[in-house]
Each structure stands twice: as structure tokens, then as C-alpha cells.
Design goal:
Radius of gyration: 14 Å
Structural class: alpha+beta
Distance between the termini: 24 Å
Shape: globular
Number of domains: 1
Strand content: 15-25%
Number of strands: 2
Length: 83
């Protein structure tokens, strides 16, 4: 998983750099790290695809897709710190 997350972060950094959006790098890297980590942890999928696109001038889209055939089980959100 660590290698996948590192590659995903590099992809986000590169795309945002090409588009001149360096101010979004920290947030983009955090988002893709969380999404890739969640996909790896909760699906057990060995293949995770990451796409970074800019469908409009004021929009950046980061997509993470796993190959699991199982639909995710929704969970209730919790408020506050978890111990």
C-alpha cells in the first residue's frame, strides 16, 4: 500500500504542477493518500487506479477506483476524536 500511495501522491503533485496549481498540492496529496489508503484497507483489492483531471478551469477531480466486486457497507459518521 505504501508504494501505491506514494505513486498517487506523485501523480497529484505532477498534475497540479503542470496546471500551475501549486497552492492545491498539500490538499490534493492529503486527499489522494486518504482515498488510496481507504481503498487498500477496506477492499483488499490489489489493483487501485488513480486519475487526476481538470474537467473545467476551476475544477480538479481526483478519482480513486478499486477492483473489488463488493459494494461498500455504509457506516454512520462519528463526531469528535476517536480513541
Amino acid at each position: 500500500m505504501a508504494r501505491s500511495a506514494a505513486e498517487a501522491r506523485g501523480l497529484v503533485r505532477a498534475a497540479l504542477g503542470v496546471w500551475g496549481l501549486m497552492e492545491l498540492v498539500d490538499d490534493g496529496v492529503l486527499v489522494v493518500s486518504e482515498l488510496v489508503g481507504n481503498a487498500a484497507e477496506h477492499t483488499g483489492s490489489r489493483r487501485i487506479s488513480v486519475t487526476v483531471s481538470r474537467p473545467e478551469v476551476d475544477t480538479v477531480r481526483i478519482s480513486v477506483v478499486d477492483r473489488s466486486r463488493t459494494m461498500p457497507v455504509p457506516r454512520l459518521a462519528r463526531v469528535g476524536l476517536l480513541y
